[in-house]
Amino acid sequence: MIKKQQIRLLTNGKKKPHILVIGDIMADRYVWGTASRISPEAPVPVVNVKNETITLGGAANVAQNLYRLNAKVSICGVTGNDAISAIVHEQLKRENVDVQAIVMDNSRSTTLKTRIMAGTHQLLRIDREHVHDIAPEVEAKLLKKLDAKIRKADIVMLSDYNKGLLTYSFTQKVIALCNEAGKKVMVDPKGLHYEKYTGAWLIKPNKRELAEATVTEKIQSDQELLSAAQKLLKKTRTQYLVVTKSEEGIALVSKKNFWNFPVKAKEVFDVTGAGDTVFASLGYFIALGIDITQACELANYAAAIAVSKVGSVAVTIEEILSLLDHHE
Fold first, then answer.
1. CATH code, 4-25+57-110+131-327
2. Are 306 and 69 in contact (CB under 8 A)?
3. Where's the Carbohydrate kinase PfkB domain (predicted)?
4. Which of 62, 73, 101, 186 has the greatest number of C-beta atoms within 10 Å?
5. Is 147 a catalytic residue?
6. Rounded to the nearest 5 degrees, what angle is found at the Cα of 264, between the Cα atoms of 284 and 218?
7. pTM higher than 0.85 for the full model?
8. Catalytic member of 127, 270, 276, 291
9. pLDDT category, 216, cuts 50, 70, 90?
10. Sequence spans of domains, the chain
11. 153: helix, strand or coil
């Protein structure tokens, strides 16, 4: 059972947890408009553009979520040397995120996802990105910047979007540095190569990712989820798996225990960035010293708030506490 007063006392405290986010830095562009007719040139809607916005995505969205939750945040990653990189840097600095460990790589562009919106409906997404693995010299620059950042952090969070940053070499070196420094590593994974996460403290796949990572045809029951999770726990030597289950909520699995946290959302408008919100919330509450089961429960409330809004949004402590009030 969550003790709301305890949460309020911890989150209102003067000490902010220091969290280091390492991952794929992206931007989300939204082109907002209306669509009331079909083009005479092709059977597609004509969007009359009213507004455009650019928000932080990927690891940058995780960092923004952590700042809004009242953490002290540093971020490490790569961007291109381009206009979108400048916008991302500006927005991160506005959120008081330390950007000193970001490396600009002239061989790539900053990942940009453009969504064409008609009202609250997404009609089309256009991606502009380079996803090749970082070069050895870029890896060396990142590791040099990370040494001091890891020592200062209360927890380290790896946000992998499979865009070329978190290679096997770089990821394993980061985890080794963290373990040497006694820092917990949390991973939001992507792709099939989970061996690169070996030694992390916690990994957060969704149900589909868990099935793919363990070559399981389908996960349709708690028993099947538990069986697949145990395989992945053994493979990666991690202590915990947090499995997000979309409309079914969240599951927490260790070698000896299994917990289920049913979904809290009443309305779902947009799932964009919801995984980042769960990941950021988990990291924040664990860095505060809150028990992992309570952290999962609170992250579940944060996810409910995120999916009730359009676009990648940062959830606040007050919103989480308010939703807790409604469920008491």
1. 3.40.1190.20
2. no
3. 18-314
4. 62
5. no
6. 90
7. yes
8. 276
9. confident
10. 4-25+57-110+131-327
11. coil
